[in-house]
Every structure is written in structure tokens, then in C-alpha cells.
Amino acid sequence: MRIGLDVSSMQHFRWRDYAVRFVFGGIVTALVGLIARRYGPGVAGLFLAFPAIFPAGATLIEKQQREKKRRAGLDGTSRGRVAAGIDAVGAAMGTLGLIAFAILIWRFLPSHSGPAILTVAGLAWLAISVLAWRIRKAMKKLKAARRQKIT
Amino acid sequence: MDELIFRFLIGGTLVSAFALVGDAVRPKSFAGLFGAAPSIALATLGLTVATKGRDYAAIEARSMIAGAIAFFIYALIVSKVMLRYKPPALVATSALMLVWLATAFGLWFVWVR
After folding, report:
1. CA A30, CA A53: separation in Å to the nearest integer?
2. Nearest to B94 by CA among B113, B81, B84
3. By three-state DSSP, how is residue B53 classified?
């Protein structure tokens, strides 16, 4: 399947869903500041990769898929949960980019310009995440082809 | 107090922006990448560089490596549980948060501290 934009998904755009993510994201970012003040940057840094909005996102995907199937006259509960599981696989690939992002900032921020390193690290997150996702897809395809050859 | 409100607004905006992109891209497993976008990290590190300096932000980034490894393990376990047992997403993702906490603080205690 090719990577692309699905503008039709925006038809189901709901402010409430984004408001929830805004509030969660805002609270965690503010909390990281408080933790840094109380316990120092060593502990606060852990929470820069805290999956704060992950449960909200997964629940939303589950709900959207379930409703889609229900509109087609099917139950959709199981399909919604599988969709949330597939989303989590993608998130796992994204965390590989997140590890690279953190390493780049840790190693290069003290000696380089802040905005430049943050930009490079952000781009590295995207590149490594996409690469990891593509490698996983290719491996899955290869495995399926091998299995087909055997049978 | 002003700083906290500013953090809240910047963090909320970046998280929503990445979520918006994640909702618009396909296929679903690719959209999942945006569930692990560095939205909170970008907001926090940007503010930290501006207020406390680059060295302080680098210390946060070092610990973030442990948090990100913990996130990887957490997301893998969530996907396995969701695909095999199909529990409600909120139950699985919330209960398994303990995995993230244990891994992140375990790594921090052994390696970062």
C-alpha cells in the first residue's frame, strides 16, 4: 500500500477529539516543567518520550473504525481493536526515530545552535521512522512470499 | 505560573498538529508513526534551550533515550495484545502504561542516573 494523504478522513473531523489531545499534550508538557523543577532534568527527560496521548489516539481509532463498520451494518468491535493494534505497530516504528532524535540532541546540542539541532533531529525522526516502517513492510512481504512458496 | 501556561499552550498545539497529520495520512500503520512524534520533546526542549541553556536541555535528551526505548517496548506489547486478544484499546493502553514506567525508570536507574 502506498503512503498518501486521505483528505476524506477530514470529513469526520471533530473538534472534541483534538481538544482532548491538546489538553493531554499541554498537561504533560507543563508537568515535565514541574518535574524538572522538583527532581531535575535527568528525571524530567524520561517524560519527553512519555506515551501521553497514545491511549487517547488508540481509543479514537478504535471508535472511528467501529462506527465505520456499524454504518455498513456490521458489528465492528473486533475490527476497531485490530485497527488500534495496527496503529500501535506504526507507533513502535516511530519510537525508533524518537530514539535517534534524543541521541542527536544529547550528542550535538551542547556544541551547536539550538534551532538547527532541533530541526535536524526532527527530520531525523521522520526519516528513520519511515525507513523502519518500510523495512518492516518489506520483511513482511518477503515472509508472506516465502510462506506461499512452501505451500 | 506564566511559564507553565506557555508550556501548556505550546505542548498542546504541537501535539494536536502532529495528531492532525497522523489522522490525514494512510495506510493506518504508517499513520501510527505520528503516535510517537516528538511533539512534547520539541515543545519542552525548545523552551528549555531558551530559558536554561543547551547543556541543561542535553541532560534531558539523554534521559529521553531511556524513555523512548521504554516507549518502543510499550508500543510493541500494546500491538501484540491488541492484535491477539482484542481488548478495549483504552484498557490495554492504560494498563500497559506500567510497562513504560517500569522500563523507563529501570533504564534510568541502571544507565542514566
Report:
1. 14
2. B81
3. coil
**Residues of B whose CB is below 8 A from A33:** 3-4, 7, 44, 47
Grid coordinates belonging to B39:
511533539
What is the rounded average pLDDT of the residues B78-89? 96
B103 CB near a chain A CB, below 8 Å? no
Tell me, what's the pLDDT at A10?
Answer: 65
Are residues B82 and B28 in contact, defined by beta-carbon separation less than 8 angstroms? Answer: no
ipTM confidence? 0.94
Cα A35 from Cα A48, distance rounded (Å): 11
A51-74: pLDDT as tens digits? 988 888 898 889 888 888 888 888
- Location of C-alpha cell 492504560: B94
Q: Average of pLDDT values for B9-33?
A: 89
Give SS3 for A51.
coil
A40: left (phi over 0), alpha (psi -120 to 50) or beta: left
Amino acid at A42: G
Is A41 close to B63, i.e. CB distance below 8 A?
yes
Question: What cell numbers appear for A147 in the block?
Answer: 510462506
* Each residue's pLDDT tens digit, B38-58: 999 999 999 999 999 999 999
Reading the block at residue A125, the C-alpha cell is 525522526
